[in-house]
Amino acid sequence: MANKPEAIDALKDNGRAERVAMSQAPPQPSAEPVKGADILVEALVRQGVDLVFGYPGGASMEIHQAIIRSNIRCVLCRHEQGEIFAAEGYAKASGKVGVCIATSGPGATNLVTGLADAKMDSVPVVAITGQVPTHLMGGDAFQETPIIEVTRQITKHNFLVDHIDHIPRIVKEAFYIASTGRPGPVLIDVPKDVQQGYTVPIYPDQVAIRSYNPHVRAGREEIQVVAQAIRESKRPVLYVGGGVVSSGGADELRELVRKTRIPVVQTLMGLGVFPENDPLSLQMVGMHGTVYANYAINHADLLLAMGVRFDDRVTGKLEEFCKHGKIVHIDIDPSEINKNKEAHISVVSDVKYALEDLNGLVEPGDYSAWHAELDIWRKKHPMKYKDLKDEILPQYAIDLLYKLTKGKAIITTGVGQHQMWAAQYYLFDEPRNWLTSGGLGAMGFGLPAALGAQMARPDALVIDIDGDGSFVMNVQELATLYAEKIPVKTMILNNQHLGMVVQWEDILYESNRGHTFIGDPEGKGFHPDFAKIADGFRIPAEQVVHKKDLPAALERMIQTPGPYLLDVIVPYQEHVLPMIPSGKTFADIITE
Question: Which of the two ends of the chain, N or C, has the fewest CB atoms closer than 10 A to its terminal CB?
Fold first, then answer.
């Protein structure tokens, strides 16, 4: 961008929706001019923010100086990717907006993976980045990147603050956009001269954006059509996902199931929105879902899809997915309707509102024959694993952890086999206790997300179930746990391989290894030594190899005050089963 004024104009109000007049509180008569960075921090305080995750740099120093003059606590993560994953963990565990702050250039670009992850999984995050002064923008100044342009497709919205007087309005709009409708990440880019300027701030009381109407409630007639479809069905299934979690509709969903006795399958992002121990829960659906959940989808005459997006890891071959059933799709985002799978009945609505209205119309149905049919498949294909004498199977480790914690912990994961096994064998009774990277599948998510979740719910037991490949990607956040006294527990299922890729190599490439072994090439032992690494960060840790030693080691991990790391050595030959290969159908499911 050689022409600086044009470069700035291209960024100003990028994609900003038209606004209507906002009611504003007038400034105090005796108000004195305030520095831009302090206005930004005060705007955060007025949004109820008392905690942010950050890593300072030259273009964001003014913001951090303002934070230390406020009552906001800043958790100093050791990498910008760590801080945005922590903000996501905070948001997922609490339902509040997670906030993170980074400097310009490499600091801002290090947020990109987290922004994409939050966009895919609909996580309310506000990311604030410092930017070089406006007069230097477009000139390739030191640590300059056009982060507005970079993040346009992976944020729900973004703002360049081109004038100090816009700060209060933009912050209020950012939180409003991030937290309403379908939640998502919003980025605010603040040039350094805007942070350093002075003005008398005017903080708006409310926000209204003409083309943005996030509070969507379907009409009664639309809900009546859904209720009628339920009355006419003999083999209905509720297919529920992260949208039910985001809407806060778990109680309404449970009421619907109590009234109708319709069985429930849950997506990876929806685990816990309905109790997985309930007899009407068929647990997780999709590529690594239960056989009986996938059978139910395949044989249903009515699929009630709520807060889901029919992603490929659930549907497999789209033409065959619920081929013989009528599909009802309820979602707050109209762009999701008919995007991947055409619905027979589509309803654009906040799922919580739709469930509330539906509960006033439905009646108990007689689905005893359908329940009996599903029970046959549940007994025929239960979730199971081998009982080895000495080796620790990852499924056993997670199952044992579930029993020792009575299913009450907040669980985060990285991405890979350990993630799927955690989803299969740690059963959730409540929403917001299962935090994982679903749509993007970002390795390195587990530890920083656990850090954020622990800050959101300090009295909860928070455990990161991780893989050796994923864990090392953000291992530096052990330093944050120690420095900030955050009692996150970490259980690494260490198979010395990139396990999920190995599994696909076994299935598709005759077990030919394409750089998936990440252990010691000289065969001198388990590499790296995570217990020694943790000790270097002053985190208590141990390694366990033998099955007989695992129960006591897990108890020590759970009971030790403060953070703890347990490195569990597991065999790499295990596959995550069941499995419907990508692009295949229920008929192709692998169970052995």
Answer: C
Answer yes or no: 379 catalytic: no
Question: Contact, 289 vs 303, CB < 8 A?
Answer: no
- The single residue of 500, 503, 537, 579 carrying the catalytic annotation is 500
Whether 192 sits among the annotated catalytic residues: the reply is yes
Q: Phi and psi for 332 in degrees, rounded to 5?
A: -75, -20
Reply yes or no on whether 120 is catalytic. no
Task: State the catalytic residue, choosing from 42, 62, 80, 144.
Answer: 80
Tens digits of per-residue pLDDT, 567-583?
999 999 999 999 999 99
Q: Is 477 an annotated catalytic residue? A: no
Radius of gyration of the chain from its Cα atoms, rounded to whole angstroms? 25
- Identify the H or E element spanning 128: strand 125-131
Identify the H or E element spanning 303: strand 302-306
pTM across the whole model: 0.94
The one catalytic residue in 24, 142, 232, 342 is 142
What are the DSSP E strand ranges found in 410-523?
Answer: 410-413, 434-435, 462-467, 489-494
Asked if 80 is an active-site residue, the reply is yes
Q: Is the peptide bond before 458 cis (omega within 30 degrees of 0)?
A: no
- State the catalytic residue, choosing from 92, 192, 341, 352: 192
Q: Which long-range contacts (CB under 8 A, 24 or more apart) does 514-522 make?
A: 518/468, 518/469, 520/496
